[in-house]
Design brief:
The complex is a heterodimer of chains A (307) and B (382). By secondary structure, chain A is mostly helical. Chain A contains eleven helices and four strands, in the order H-H-H-H-E-E-E-H-H-H-H-E-H-H-H. Chain A has one domain: ABC transporter involved in vitamin B12 uptake, BtuC (Orthogonal Bundle), CATH 1.10.3470. In chain A, strands 1-4 form a two-stranded antiparallel ribbon. In chain A, a hairpin with a 4-residue loop joins strand 2 and strand 3. The longest helix of chain A has 32 residues. In chain B, the strands form three sheets. A two-stranded antiparallel sheet of chain B has the order 1-6. In chain B, helix 8 packs antiparallel against helix 13 and helix 14 packs across helix 15. Chain B is built from 16 helices and six strands. With 382 residues, chain B is mostly helical. Classes of the chains: A mainly alpha (307), B mainly alpha (382). At the A-B interface, helix 4, helix 9 and helix 11 of A face helix 8, helix 9, helix 14 and helix 16 of B.
Chain lengths: 307, 382
């Protein structure tokens, strides 16, 4: 194994890891605030990619002279605004009414919601059942040697992903809104008594998680140059796994989990070249083993239990 | 007048009336091919259900069920037999009836896990698939007789369940959900990339043969030619009957009582000396064994399996059946299976939209009526 090839795998792994971390952050945010798993989050990511693509088509059709930076900005803006609205709608219509229901019902309801979103795109998006090419959006500068290609767009995506996670971290830990979110996460009743607007906090959290997911969707499109309606299910499962191996309710756990999952997939592909197709089998197998070893994730939840 | 009718229905007559109504309705519904009659059938059943609930007929039927249980069990056996006989020449409808019974067995297994012991399982379809693939490989590869292969399919599902239960036991809540979910995804991907088990194209399954009778040929009865699915349906009915009796006995025994205790409050039941792990393991293994048996029979009936039959979405389908029927209520489970299997099949002309409509309906059901069609009644100790 040559050094450069190894480095190439590392770069790809880092890109995947950032994408998974962005999805996992959403899972962990929602769990922190309302103690729910919103399994449709992966499909929200997919909706983000598709709204970005629609915006790209629209710009191409009506303003073909738009500079590339403007197009990229509009695409991200469209993805984020559609998905933020969707996220808030989902929170208001499904998650909050089911707050007192057993955890299984919520989980199943959000899985069904994911199916509704996925099927809607398949049926109602023009030619939705086939993969669509996704535009590169960013200039395709790259630096290459014999086996290593460093692409500018990957670097830009990675840095903006890191920035977004830093921003989420800043909002949660340094702003009044973040204080309210943490208060609700700790004790809903007490937070309400202190004058926190519960509904607003929930909506803000879902908007934030969805915004991050939209960016992950655009990133997913640019990275693979292609989007399909079905990508949400696997992304959701991976994001959920990442959030859980890290430890639910912890943003750093989600980031750690995202990178671990990408690392596992890459290792699965590199270390077993004879069986590269088994990389997902390997990754999910290790997830199960990790949970058997650390039942509440690597960064454990505080495990006190009132009897 | 009304009171007399309710008294009439809460006796043994209620059972006969109910069974006849189900036979007639299912017969009409299965025969209907145009959209309008199918739709009218559905509206009728929903309307009857709502009316029965408002006129307290449901309570009368419940009394009848509690007092004449033996008769109800007999009727439950007579309904599928009557339907099988009515459709004796119709391949498609017989296949649907068989599929309902096989799915019901798998959901009964899930019911033991989730409904009694409270062990979460998002990989029911994977165990269904393990049974199917094991029995197929044993027949084609090892040349085992189909009946042995069928039973070993169940055993294999139970064995794999024995391994998966360890991480499930150590975790709880969402973490346990993830373990089974990861297993479901892992199973599907593994079957897809594996050439040994036929890969994504799937494999053909040899037919069931029992006492030298090949189940894949039509048979003559007098001068009518009976569909070959008739034998499969009888076998499915046998399996469903055995599974039903087994699960009912389990529920009524001290084992079921212990499982209920474990589900309702594990701390309290541990304080009373109930071994939580033991009952969770028992429930998980028994449930998976039932799913595996059902899967093995389903594979033989369908004569062809591929990984696309055993995806995570199929596990969700099983779970939704359980939730729609009312977790823990076996009659509810079977009733829900009938609807969940039949409705998509009947609306095949609008096939494109069926997953959308179906998942939307389940979503609404969870939000507005989370207890299901027939919620489980509290235990009666009288």
């Amino acid at each position: 194994m040559e050094m450069e090839l190894l480095l190439q795998f590392c770069i790809n792994g880092l890109m995947l890891g950032m994408m998974y971390a962005l999805v996992a952050v959403g899972f962990t945010l929602f769990f922190g605030v309302l103690d729910v798993i919103v399994f449709s989050h992966g499909d929200t990511v997919m909706i983000g990619s598709f709204s970005g693509l629609s915006m790209y088509w629209w710009v191409n059709a009506y303003y073909p002279a738009m500079p590339a930076a403007g197009t990229a900005f509009l695409v991200v803006l469209a993805a984020v605004s559609v998905v933020v609205l969707l996220g808030m709608g989902v929170a208001d219509a499904v998650i909050v009414p089911l707050r007192k229901a057993p955890a299984l019902n919520t989980l199943l309801a959000t899985m069904m919601l994911g199916t509704v979103l996925r099927e809607s795109i398949r049926l109602f998006f023009p030619d939705g059942s086939n993969p669509h090419p996704f535009p590169g959006l960013l200039p395709d500068w790259s630096w290459r040697s014999s086996q290593l290609t460093l692409r500018f767009d990957n670097l830009a995506l990675f840095c903006s992903g890191a920035l977004i996670i830093a921003l989420v971290h800043f909002i949660i830990n340094r702003t009044r809104l973040g204080l309210a979110i943490r208060a609700v996460a700790q004790d809903e009743e007490a937070a309400k008594l202190m004058g926190v607007n519960f509904r607003l906090v929930v909506l803000a959290t879902f908007a934030m998680g969805a915004g991050v997911a939209a960016f992950a969707g655009v990133m997913n499109g640019i990275y693979y140059n292609e989007i399909t309606f079905g990508v949400g299910l696997l992304l959701g499962a991976i994001g959920f796994s990442a959030a859980v191996i890290g430890g639910l309710g912890n943003v750093f756990g989600a980031i750690l989990g995202g990178f671990i999952f990408a690392f596992l997939q890459t290792i699965g592909a590199v270390a077993m070249p004879f069986a590269a197709a088994y990389k997902d089998v390997f990754a999910f197998g290790v997830v199960i083993a990790l949970l058997a070893w650390r039942p509440t994730g690597l960064i454990a939840e505080p495990a006190s239990k009132r009897v | 007048m009304m009171r007399q009718m309710l008294a009439f229905l809460s006796g043994s007559a209620g059972c006969i009336v109910f069974a006849l109504a189900i036979i007639v309705w299912l017969h009409v519904f299965l025969m209907a091919e145009e959209h309008v009659p199918i739709f009218i059938c559905l509206v009728t059943v929903v309307g009857l259900g709502v009316a029965a609930n408002m006129l307290k007929v449901t309570d009368a039927v419940r009394t009848s069920l509690a007092e004449h249980e033996r008769l109800w069990n007999l009727c439950a056996l007579a309904v599928p037999l009557a339907l099988i006989w009515l459709f004796r020449e119709d391949h498609y409808n017989l296949f649907l009836i068989g599929a309902i019974m096989v799915y019901a067995v798998a959901v009964l297994g899930l019911n033991v896990q989730l409904g009694y012991a409270g062990v979460i399982n998002f990989s029911c379809a994977s165990f269904f698939g393990i049974g199917a693939y094991t029995s197929t490989m044993l027949m084609t590869g090892a040349g085992l007789p189909p009946l042995a292969a069928l039973l070993l399919g169940g055993v294999m599902a139970a064995l794999v369940g024995c391994i998966l239960i360890f991480p499930v036991l150590r975790t709880s809540g969402h973490y346990a959900a993830l373990v089974t979910m990861a297993f479901a995804l892992l199973f599907k991907v593994f079957m897809d990339v594996n050439d040994f088990f036929g890969g994504p194209q799937g494999i053909t399954v040899p037919p069931m043969t029992l006492f030298g009778i090949d189940f894949s040929h039509n048979m003559l009865f007098g001068d009518t030619e009976l569909s070959f699915y008739l034998r499969y349906d009888l076998l499915c009915l046998l399996l469903l009957g055995l599974a039903f009796c087994f699960v009912r006995r389990l529920e009524r025994s001290w084992i079921g009582l212990s499982m209920d205790a474990v589900r309702s409050d594990d701390t309290a039941s541990a304080c009373f000396g109930i071994n939580i792990s033991r009952w969770k393991i028992t429930a998980f293994v028994v449930g998976n064994c039932l799913s595996g048996l059902a899967g093995a029979l389903y594979a033989m009936m369908q004569a062809y399996i591929s990984p696309a039959n055993f995806t995570f979405s199929d596990s969700l389908l099983f779970l939704s059946i359980l939730l729609l029927g009312g977790i823990g209520n076996m009659w509810g489970v079977i009733l829900a299976t009938v609807f969940v299997v039949l409705i998509p099949e009947k609306f095949q002309v609008i096939q494109e939209f069926r997953y959308l409509i179906y998942s939307g309906l389940v979503l609404l059901m969870i939000i507005f009526s989370p207890k299901g069609l027939l919620p489980r009644q509290p235990r009666s100790y009288s």
